Amino acid sequence: MRKVPRSTALAAGALASLAIACPDREVKRIDPEPQGEHYKEIPVGQNRDVDILFVIDNSSSMSGEQTSLKTNFPAFINVLESIEGGLPNVHIGVVTSDVGVNGYDFGNCQGEGDDGFLISSPQAGNTCTAPSGTFIRDVKRADGTRDRNYPAGKLAETFGCIAEVGDDGCGFEKHLEAMRRALDGRNKEFHRKNAYLAVIFLADEDDCSVTEQGGIIFDYDEQIDNVSSTLGPYDSFRCTEFGVVCDDGLIERTTKTYGTCVPRKEDDLAKQLVAHPQEYVTFLKNLKGTGSSDDNKIIIANIVGNPDKLKVLTNDKGRPKLEPSCQSTNGKADPAHRLDWFRKQFQKNTFVSICNSDLTDALTEIAELLKRAIDDPCIEGAVNTTDAQPNQPGLQINCEVADVKFSGTDEEDQKQLPRCPMQDENTPVPSTDASNPPRPCWYVKAEPTKCASKPSQLALIVDRNGAEPEDGTSIIMRCATVGE
Length: 484
Known about the structure:
Elements: E1 36-43, E2 49-56, H1 63-81, E3 89-96, E4 136-140, E5 146-148, H2 155-163, H3 175-183, E6 196-202, H4 237-243, E7 244-246, E8 249-250, E9 256-258, E10 261-263, H5 278-288, E11 298-304, E12 310-314, E13 320-322, E14 326-328, E15 331-333, H6 337-343, E16 348-353, H7 360-374, E17 399-405, E18 413-417, E19 422-424, E20 427-428, E21 441-446, E22 458-463, E23 474-481
Parallel strand pairs: 2-3, 2-6, 6-11, 11-16
Antiparallel strand pairs: 1-23, 3-4, 4-5, 7-8, 7-10, 9-12, 12-13, 14-15, 17-18, 17-23, 19-20, 21-22
Helix pairs in contact: 1-2, 1-7, 3-5
């Protein structure tokens, strides 16, 4: 280990030092001449805490989707385990969309439902093993061992045990309200103030969270359960009628196709009934202390119905219903315009259709979003991408890479990492131990999708041959840049 000043530069004659990164290869002169240095620091052992909340619709049509979530969850975990340093310190919780109907009990909608409490036991008749607590915990201890409240090697199985929440919940789904209750403190120790927070919604209907006075839409009265009454027929169409507005105007109870739709704000109604999602956006941002725009610790993912159309149909009795926006072997789903608007209010967000018959790609995409939030390897500066050794496999750009401890302090120590010998442009030569070829080592690879917004579209990869870095380690990269 050696101490290296943070201000070390590559330009103005310092390029010779780049040969240190690959002592067994000559680094050739680059044309055009480098104009400066791109510096990037990637925390490896810092703030690896991630709280992941799944809000799962448990209404009568969700059995197939829950099974698919359970079956394909290993793909989600595989991506998280590929983060530099291995699986982050995760809390994983599950909450249902059933939080009652404001005292207007009817059918499966009774009391406060699950009231935002995390699901911590299997459904009746299921003999699987749930975590020994209200959520799954897998956190690295100071001595390097893992603190788990489930059997080692059984993370996916344990998640599946609590993710199959059943399909006997309330048909008026309050996804956003369930999220708020789950995070408002009633689930002790789940939410960690400084952790990243990922909220993942799995639902085949849109949100129906209401205002304090809006609970009246859940009131069942046989005399007014008809098309001409003020609230209309007693079903979840009320949530769309009073919760969504389109560029064609308010939703009507007749057959009609609408264009762009967004959450409905307070208008000419005497009282606002369905709550605008903005109050839940504000709640999350205040929870994480991120202010109005800097929400880098929040990740929102929707596995819901496609929000690209809204069409109202009527049956032979004139009762309105929504035409599904998509369907698959798992079932069908209504458009989720309110949930779509909600997730777009955060910088880190994604949507995947719940109508994918296989949710593997959906969960992989969401996990990749989480990975990028925690472990962003993209090279951001206008680095010189000229291949200094075109006769060798892989792209050889002029960089120095080091593991650093105590970054930014007088005790800062750096350990220079060698460049990985490559067998092709994306694959380093395999290592049988830490010294043959040397590990850890580094290389760069093209990531046109992951790094689409970066000038070079390159990512820095550190191959540690399965070993974990020391606690508190960061990766420091310095690469030669070129002028415009």
